[in-house]
From TrEMBL:
<feature type="transmembrane region" description="Helical">
    <location>
        <begin position="74"/>
        <end position="93"/>
    </location>
</feature>
<dbReference type="GO" id="GO:0006857">
    <property type="term" value="P:oligopeptide transport"/>
</dbReference>
<feature type="transmembrane region" description="Helical">
    <location>
        <begin position="539"/>
        <end position="561"/>
    </location>
</feature>
<dbReference type="GO" id="GO:0022857">
    <property type="term" value="F:transmembrane transporter activity"/>
</dbReference>
<feature type="transmembrane region" description="Helical">
    <location>
        <begin position="334"/>
        <end position="351"/>
    </location>
</feature>
<feature type="transmembrane region" description="Helical">
    <location>
        <begin position="492"/>
        <end position="512"/>
    </location>
</feature>
<dbReference type="InterPro" id="IPR018456">
    <property type="entry name" value="PTR2_symporter_CS"/>
</dbReference>
<comment type="similarity">
    <text>Belongs to the major facilitator superfamily. Proton-dependent oligopeptide transporter (POT/PTR) (TC 2.A.17) family.</text>
</comment>
<feature type="transmembrane region" description="Helical">
    <location>
        <begin position="189"/>
        <end position="208"/>
    </location>
</feature>
<keyword id="KW-0812">Transmembrane</keyword>
<keyword id="KW-0472">Membrane</keyword>
<feature type="transmembrane region" description="Helical">
    <location>
        <begin position="411"/>
        <end position="431"/>
    </location>
</feature>
<feature type="transmembrane region" description="Helical">
    <location>
        <begin position="214"/>
        <end position="235"/>
    </location>
</feature>
<dbReference type="InterPro" id="IPR000109">
    <property type="entry name" value="POT_fam"/>
</dbReference>
<dbReference type="Pfam" id="PF00854">
    <property type="entry name" value="PTR2"/>
</dbReference>
<protein>
    <submittedName>
        <fullName>Uncharacterized protein</fullName>
    </submittedName>
</protein>
<dbReference type="GO" id="GO:0016020">
    <property type="term" value="C:membrane"/>
</dbReference>
Length: 593
């Protein structure tokens, strides 16, 4: 019996619902099947995003700023919907079903986009871009386009919330060998994200520009259906983790219980607070956010059922354990760092919108070959891959010898990412100033600004290197500094910084366009419909200034942030006792109140 149990995973089951057998389930083969979905997701989402702005301007005849906002809203919604996907996976569907269902949704969305870009009835009559006589797309045409885009966004949000988690489910953390394999899987996971992005900004963008967008999006849809088939082929090999319930509900329970007891006084001794977790899983009590501690004040009525009878378990909406309260406190402590990382993704949004539009106006020829404007983001992806390689092979060993630590801390990596993105925006402002000077020398018949597109490479490299640091730093920070039972929630919190960064970009574009219009620059404002008549350099400068202010605020928040007691520090916990002891304490507290 003991030998048999050693070959099962305690918290995982197979497709029949029996304890998962290590020899028959999990490991690298099932994990590799899952990675195919991630490659296709990146191929579709990024292949669409990096070149969508040129389609909106050149084919749908939309203004420059409006086109940029369509892209950023699409990307922002994709990441925001990760919260929905995570909630459904944790509460109802489980990770596997969530991935399968939303992968089909994304595949249908890309198929719809292929149709929308193929049929001439779904786009306005062709004409020269930026011509005042061009007819913009009508409401029906834009409606079909939006439907396709937001089907893709829904699919991306749903499957992205669970892919990495389901991949790690295939490894047993209590097995040293499989734990090492899981760490290797995380490294390969980020590599495959970058590989999918690299294919998107090179091969897929080239097909869009030279062969046809409908062909490119059709390839995305077909590849996603193939990836779904590969995913389904491993049903009998996967390990499935049982749902622990939604962490959002747990957070709401603590808040509701604290509000319900807001008029009660905290006991003089925190050991009087309710605790039901075993010693090995408790979290040390902290003095921050003491209002939330009131959720752990026990009274007799907390244990009463609907029929007025006394139950053995309290109503979770009226009484929460100290550990559950501390879990919520841990999440609250993450919020200042969370808020100060949003501006990076606002900067990132410019790399796939205005920077691509800049490239479309510049000389992109290398010999007889013309680089597609969207493919210039290959330098962005290359910067990420090179930075990760240099960090792993050079910086980490040197840092370990010098400081005795295996690389920078998560907060240090975030700081480096913020600094690089801010410098990137300052460099982008200078490059755009030079591009505008060259544009002024153009004749009206000239379409291409007489300046090389390689002028934009430094801004792509700087922001790309910044992403390599901040993405890994954020992911590490939100996973390691969150409670064990809220890992999915913390990952969702991380992804919302990407979402809000895109939405903040849309908001800034709208505000800047409104505030600067009607002033100088012939009434065009900074973000004119034709960027050759605007002052995009001033907009980039504004983002650089905001980056400096945000960086200063981040440093303050990083100094303020103090990690809380980790799970398992049961001996350090001041509060909590057994249920029998708590009932006696609850009666005493009730009499006192």
């Amino acid at each position: 019996m003991d030998g048999k149990m050693s070959w099962t995973v305690a918290d995982a089951v197979d497709y029949k619902g029996f304890p998962a057998d290590k020899s028959k389930t999990g490991g690298w083969v099932p994990a590799a099947l899952i990675l195919g979905i991630e490659i296709c997701e990146r191929l579709s989402t990024m292949g669409i995003a990096v070149n969508l702005v040129t389609y909106l301007i050149g084919t749908m005849h939309m203004p420059s700023s409006t086109s940029a906002n369509v892209v950023t809203d699409f990307m922002g919604t994709s990441f925001l919907l990760c919260l929905l996907g995570g909630f459904l996976a944790d509460s109802f569907l489980g990770r596997f079903k969530t991935i399968a269902i939303f992968s089909v949704v994304q595949a249908l969305g890309t198929a719809a986009l292929a149709v929308a870009t193929k049929l001439p009835q779904l786009r306005p009559p062709p004409c020269h871009a930026n011509n005042s006589s061009c007819t913009p797309a009508n409401g029906f045409q834009m409606g079909i386009l939006y439907m396709a885009l937001y089907l893709i966004a829904l699919g991306t949000g749903g499957l992205k919330s669970s892919v990495s988690g389901f991949g790690t489910d295939q490894f047993d953390e209590k097995d040293d060998k499989e734990k090492a394999q899981m760490a290797y899987f995380f490294n390969r996971f980020f590599f495959f994200i970058s590989l999918g992005t690299l294919l998107a900004v090179t091969v897929l963008v080239y097909i869009q520009d030279e062969v046809g967008r409908s062909w490119a999006y059709g390839i995305c849809s077909a590849s996603m259906f193939i990836a779904i088939g590969i995913l389904l082929s491993g049903i009998k090999k996967y390990r499935y983790k049982k749902s622990m319930g939604s962490p959002i509900v747990h957070i709401l329970q603590v808040i509701a219980a604290a509000i319900g007891k807001r008029k009660m006084d905290l006991p003089y001794d925190v050991s009087l607070l309710y605790e039901s977790n075993p010693d090995g899983t408790r979290i040390q009590h902290t003095d921050q956010f003491q209002f939330l501690d009131k959720a752990a004040i026990g009274v007799q009525s907390d244990f009463e059922t609907k029929n007025g009878r006394r139950g053995s378990e309290p109503n979770p909406w009226r009484l929460c354990s100290v550990t559950r309260v501390e879990e919520v406190k841990m999440m609250v402590r993450l919020l200042p760092i969370w808020a100060t990382t949003i501006i990076f993704w606002t900067t990132y949004a410019q790399m796939i919108t205005f920077s691509v539009e800049q490239a479309s106006t510049m000389d992109r020829k290398v010999g007889s070959f013309q680089i597609p404007a969207g493919s210039l983001t290959v330098f962005f992806v290359a910067a990420i891959l090179i930075t990760l390689a240099v960090y792993d092979r050079l910086i980490m060993p040197v840092w370990k010898k010098w400081k005795g630590k295996p690389g920078f801390s998560n907060l240090q990596r975030i700081a480096i990412g913020l600094a690089l993105s801010t410098i990137g925006m300052a460099v982008a402002a200078l490059a755009e100033s030079r591009r505008l000077s060259a544009a002024k020398s153009m004749t009206t018949a000239t379409k291409t600004v007489p300046i090389s597109v390689f002028l934009l490479i430094p801004q792509f490299l700087l922001v790309g290197s910044g992403e390599a640091f901040i993405y890994t730093g954020q992911l590490d920070f939100f996973i390691t500094q969150s409670p064990k039972g809220m890992k999915t929630m913390s990952t969702g919190l991380f992804l919302t910084t990407l979402s809000l960064g895109f939405f903040v970009s849309s908001f800034l574009v709208m505000v800047v366009k409104k505030v600067t219009a009607g002033g100088g620059n012939g009434g065009q404002g900074w973000l004119a419909d034709n960027i050759n008549h605007g002052r995009l350099d001033c907009f980039y400068g504004l983002l650089a200034v905001l980056g400096v202010v945000n960086f200063a605020v981040f440093l303050v928040c990083a100094v303020w942030y103090k990690p809380s007691g980790k799970e398992g520090d049961g001996k350090k916990l001041n509060g909590g006792g057994s249920l029998e002891v708590m009932e006696k304490k609850a009666n005493g507290v009730e009499e006192k109140c």
